[in-house]
Amino acid sequence: MLPTLTSTLLSLSSSPPNPAQGTILTASAHANGFYNSPGVSGLLPAAYTHLSLRFLQAARRKAADIKLREWQRGTVGEKEGWTYHAKGVWATFPVSPSSSRDPPRNQETVGPSATVIGSSNYTKRSYGLDLEVGALVVTDDEGLMRKWRKEEEGLMEWTREVGEEELGGKERKAGWRVRVAMWIVKVVGGAL
C-alpha cells in the first residue's frame, strides 16, 4: 500500500508502523493560519514544524520510507498568500485483474483505490477528545481512481519535500518558547 495523508496539522498520536511507506502532506509554517499571529497562537506553526521533525525522526528509527511534503502558496497575510486546510487519505493498493483475460493494470497510472470521507482530523486530540466520523471508501473503478489521483496531484502541485536536516536547521528549529509551551500543554493534559 502506498498511502498519501494530508493534514493541516501533523500531530499523529504515535510513530509510524514498521515497515511503513508513503507520503505525508502538511502545511508549511507560511501556510498556517496562525503564522505571525500575536500571542501564544503565533507559536503554533513552529510547534507543528517541531512535531513534523519528531515524526520523521521516529520514521527513520523504524526504517520507514516516509516522505514529508509541505504545501505553500505564498505567505499567509500577504497578497496572494493562501492558508492550507486540506485533509484526507488516499491509499494505493496492489490491483489484480478481475480475470485472467484482463490485461494487467499499472496502478500508479490509474490512481488511489481507497480514501476516507467525512472528518479526517488525524491528531491525538481528535482521537481522544472529539467526536469524529469518517468512512473508508474502496473502489476498483478506474474512473474514480483517476479522479482521486487528479485531486491528489492538485494538492501536490504546491508542495516540496522537506527532511530532518531542514526542519532541525537553524532557520526552522523550534525555539525554547515553543518547546516549553508544548511541554506545558502536555503536562496539563492538552493535545495539539
State the assembly state of the protein chains. single chain
H/E series = EEHEEHEHEHEHH
Q: Which stretches are low in confidence, meaning pLDDT under 50 for 5 or more residues running?
A: 8-13
The description of the largest β-sheet is:
7 strands, mixed
- Please state the average pLDDT score: 81
User: Strands of the largest sheet, in order across it?
Assistant: 6-5-4-1-2-3-7
- Give the CA-CA distance, first to last residue: 28 Å
Number of helices: 6
Strand content: 15-25%
Number of DSSP E strands: 7
Q: How would you classify the helix and strand content by structural class?
A: alpha/beta
As a whole number of angstroms, the C-alpha radius of gyration is 18 Å
Helix percentage:
25-40%
Q: Looking at the structure, what is the overall shape?
A: globular
What does this structure look like?
The chain is of the alpha/beta class. It is built from six helices and seven strands; from the N terminus they run ββαββαβαβαβαα. The protein has a seven-stranded mixed β-sheet with strand order 6-5-4-1-2-3-7, sandwiched between helices. The longest helix is centred in the N-terminal third of the chain and has 18 residues, at about 45-60. The protein is globular. The model is unreliable at about 10-15 (pLDDT under 50).
Tell me the layout of helices and strands.
Blueprint: E1 2-7, E2 21-27, H1 44-61, E3 65-71, E4 88-92, H2 107-110, E5 114-118, H3 124-128, E6 134-138, H4 142-156, E7 159-162, H5 164-167, H6 176-187
Parallel strand pairs: 1-2, 2-3
Antiparallel strand pairs: 1-4, 3-7, 4-5, 5-6
